[in-house]
Write a structure and sequence with these properties.
Layout: H1 15-73, H2 75-96, H3 103-123, H4 132-140, H5 142-145, H6 151-184, H7 190-200, H8 215-225, H9 227-230, H10 232-251, H11 256-261, H12 263-276, H13 278-284
Helix pairs in contact: 1-2, 1-6, 1-7, 1-12, 2-3, 3-4, 3-6, 6-10, 6-12, 7-8
Subcellular location: Cell membrane
Protein name: GPC5 protein
Function: Cell surface proteoglycan.
């Protein structure tokens, strides 16, 4: 009554043993795939952790440097500017981590909030208190009045390049883990289990417990077993190429450290531009 290990010669196997063999090959194959995947997942998770730690460190440094700019150079508005600065860097962090937001909206929202402060504390320091309506009016008309010249748009352009590459790398590494987890739990088909039993355990039925299958036979069986996930190969290779491209970009023209550490300088130049054009801005307002 054997279904898999059918031999003309006498056999010491039973149907129950065949079933045990099938359970064994499923368990062994799962353990083998998990062991191989663990090494790859461990490496990718290590990269994700290292990237996030480096990014958070750079972000904290850039935020502290920006806050220090207001404390030293623009003390009259430092206290009120603290919240817009914090929001800007929070938005940048969320963007990198994959939130549905854009660098442009984060930067422009910051400059919208900054304009009433620059107008009332630096350009017209005699103004003691602006009403909420007036402040909101200034905030809403910032893009029309354009008090910061090209510096606000330049900041968007510079940050967008670098932060986009970082965001893509972060998402790509996480996607790699998802793909590995999905393929790791791909079930072995009935045909695969039978082929594995025939290759690995059927010789035991003849007392040949030490014999090993030849490499060609083993590869053919495993190709059949992994046929359902083999079509991922081309896409996985493309995925690896994309990761290489992103890391090269981040090390070259999209350097995250340079982009983040330059935020305070861009803000400073924008404020100086507004101050130099103070009388014209006041007349326009």
């Amino acid at each position: 009554d054997l279904q898999i290990c059918q031999h003309r010669a006498p056999t010491c196997c039973t149907k129950k043993m065949e079933e045990s063999y099938q359970a064994a090959v499923r368990r062994e194959r799962t353990q083998s795939i998990q062991a191989l995947n663990f090494e790859l997942k461990y490496m990718i998770v290590g990269h994700i952790t290292a990237f996030q730690e480096a990014f958070e460190s750079l972000l904290r440094f850039a935020e502290n440097r920006t806050s220090a700019l207001f404390e030293t150079a623009y003390r009259p508005m430092a206290k009120e500017a603290a919240e817009p600065v914090k929001e800007l860097f929070t938005d940048i962090s969320l963007y990198i981590l994959g939130a549905e937001t854009t660098v442009e909206s984060a930067v422009l929202r910051f400059f919208d909030s900054l304009f009433p402060l620059v107008y009332s504390r630096l350009i017209n320091p005699g103004i003691t208190d602006l009403s909420e309506d007036y402040t909101e009016c200034l905030r809403l008309t910032r893009q029309d009045i354009n008090p910061f010249g090209h510096y606000s748009k330049n900041m968007v352009t510079e940050l967008s390049k670098s932060l986009w590459a970082s965001r893509m790398l972060s998402q790509a590494l996480s996607l790699g883990i998802e793909v590995i987890n999905t393929t790791e739990h791909a079930a072995l088909t009935k045909e695969c289990s039978r082929a594995l039993v025939k290759m690995q355990y059927c010789p035991h039925c003849q007392g040949l417990t030490l014999i090993r299958p030849c490499v060609g036979y083993c590869l053919n069986v495993m190709r059949g077993c992994l046929a359902s996930v083999s079509e991922l190969d081309a896409q996985w290779r493309e995925f690896i190429s994309t990761l290489e491209y992103l890391t090269n970009e981040m090390a070259a023209s999209h350097d995250l450290e340079i982009a983040l550490s330059g935020i305070w300088s861009s803000i400073n130049e924008a404020i100086l531009h507004a101050q130099l054009n103070g009388p014209q801005l006041s007349a326009t307002v």
